[in-house]
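Subject: sequence -> structure tokens, single chain

Hey, anyone have a minute? Need the predicted structure for the following. Not urgent.
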Amino acid sequence: MAFGLLAKTVNISLLDCFLFSFLVFAGASQFMALDLIKAGIATGDIIIATLLLNLRHIMMSASLSVRIKENKKRWLLFIAFGITDETFAVASLKNGPLTRTFLLVLNGLSYIAWVSGSVVGYLVGAILPITVQSSLGIGLYAMFAAILMPEIRKSLNVLMLSVVSGLIYFTIYYFHLLPLGWDLIGTIILSSGVGLFIIKDEEDTA
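Reply:
Had a minute. Here:
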């Protein structure tokens, strides 16, 4: 619902809100795109920023593809489309090989919930008080925190990387080192580089 609520405040149409979730289906990118639209950023820049942000899905798809028990290519496109940060986290926590049915159901339920939630959020956006709308906006961050906490409990390096990523974003944003929208992209690139060293050190000491 949070995306629909925010889409309403940006004054895009209900159809645009629906197509956003129906075709893109990438929460972080959609929220970033709304911020860029609100800031008046050019369409081309929004597309490039969204593409860079979603490049991580290639790695997530590759990681899951080697664990799929029935590796039938005709289903891989549907499975890849449905992979998000949340579905990837759930699938990664499952022990053993992954089945096609499990991934299709997981991704399908997530897709239906996201698209329908976006529409419902848009429709109720004009009804709910401003304070309630604002509070729903933190739902995405709470969800990411819930996904991250189990990994932090397993490894202090994950906690270290999370803190470093936060500091990188704060520095870029506070000192205006990059244009609006690109601060998140810069954080992703730099944090990924730092993460490579942290993960490598963890594997070497394991």
